[in-house]
Specification:
alpha+beta; Alpha-Beta Plaits; Nucleotidyltransferase, domain 5; 3 domains; four-stranded antiparallel sheet; 16 strands; 33% helix; globular
């Protein structure tokens, strides 16, 4: 949206976010090492405020954050609790809060600065200036184009996996490869740990900026609990592909003026053991992908038409949510197109009444 509307974006990092709010439950902890009181070694401490690694800490921080945002004039969106909007005195600012990272977006710098300074007075923060990095993602802007990549993080992953100088591959997985399930029993802890380290790093890349490896990573991740050597080899094969595509990034070009468009697809019964199909979809705005997914369907489809229809259903829920989100931000959208390639599923979607 910043690319589409030529908005500026600034970042803030909240220091010690989980230590602010008081707890609403009675929670006790043992005396920490080095702070025990002589003669009262069996006593426990009651927590008044949240601590890191406490499961209630996130909720406590969220309560304090939401209350402070409302006091500053922000309104929390229903469709996404991490997005706030500020309207007033000719100002319009969108604020996104992800755990302890905050992004302030608005039409011009002056409109962003006022609510941003109010936020800084309320919380102890580190001003990141104009947004150039977030969650290991580099953000660069050139005119109307916004580029997002994880090149630096990818280099760390390749080095961690010992693949920095490996040969490149042209595809994330070999053509026609279908992972087989481990029927030989529990694998060695070393193999399991190695595979989970590699696939976990690839999952973070896939979720951030690399939709091109979504299918390969999610198919292999289904075997993370009990992998085979074959699965580790194919996870490293994805690294071979990433070696040759280290410069890939997502691009959002506001000059195109392209609106929202969704694309969905599915195979049929590709899992040889469970016979479940694999669904995938993505939604584009300004020519760049926003959400994307590739996942096994929850139930077994009895035909390719049914598998494609289920994929359309998953995609349509995402589209409805995005329609609601954009509506709350003040945009009036026409019905969003969803593209599929199966005539049977398209017919059923367009007209659910069929002859028996």
């Amino acid at each position: 949206m910043a690319a589409l509307n030529n908005w500026t974006a600034y970042g803030l990092d909240v220091r010690n976010a989980y230590l602010y709010d008081e707890l609403h439950k009675e929670i006790y902890m043992e005396q920490p090492e080095g702070f025990r009181v002589d003669g009262k070694e069996d006593f426990v401490l009651r927590l008044r405020q949240a601590l890191y690694r406490l499961k209630q800490a996130g909720l406590a921080w969220w309560r304090a954050l939401k209350q402070s945002m409302e006091e500053m004039g922000f309104i929390s969106l229903i469709s996404d609790a991490g997005v706030f909007i500020y309207k007033g005195e000719g100002l319009f600012v969108i604020t996104i809060i992800y755990v302890d990272d905050a992004i302030f977006c608005g039409p011009v710098i002056a409109t962003v600065q006022k609510p941003k300074e109010s936020f800084k007075r309320r919380w102890e923060t580190r001003d990141l200036g104009e947004l150039t990095e977030l969650l290991h993602m580099r953000i660069t802007r050139k005119g109307s184009k916004v580029h997002i990549d994880q090149c630096a993080y990818l280099r760390v992953v390749l080095e961690r996996c010992g693949m920095s100088n490996a040969k490149s591959a042209v595809t994330p997985l070999p053509a026609g490869y279908v992972p087989s399930k481990n029927l030989e029993g529990v694998t060695s802890p070393e193999l399991q740990s190695r595979f989970q380290t590699v696939i976990g790093s690839l999952l973070y890349l896939m979720l951030g900026t690399r939709p091109d490896i979504a299918y390969a990573v999610t198919r292999l991740a289904q075997h993370a609990a009990n992998p085979l050597q074959e699965h580790l080899d194919k996870a490293l094969y994805i690294c071979h592909y990433l070696v040759g595509t280290q410069g890939y990034h997502l691009t959002y070009d506001g000059a195109t003026g392209e609106g929202l468009c969704a694309v969905t697809d599915s195979d049929w019964a590709s899992d040889n053991l469970t016979r479940r199909s694999q669904s995938g979809y993505f939604v584009k705005l300004t020519g760049g992908l926003i959400p994307w997914t590739s996942q096994a369907q929850k139930t077994i489809a009895l035909s390719s038409t049914e598998a494609e229809y289920m994929a359309l259903s998953d995609c349509s829920r995402q589209v409805v949510w995005m329609h609601t989100l954009m509506g709350e931000l003040g945009y009036r959208l026409r019905p969003l197109p969803i593209c599929g390639d199966n005539q049977g599923s398209i017919f059923i979607t367009s007209n659910p009444v069929t002859e028996k």
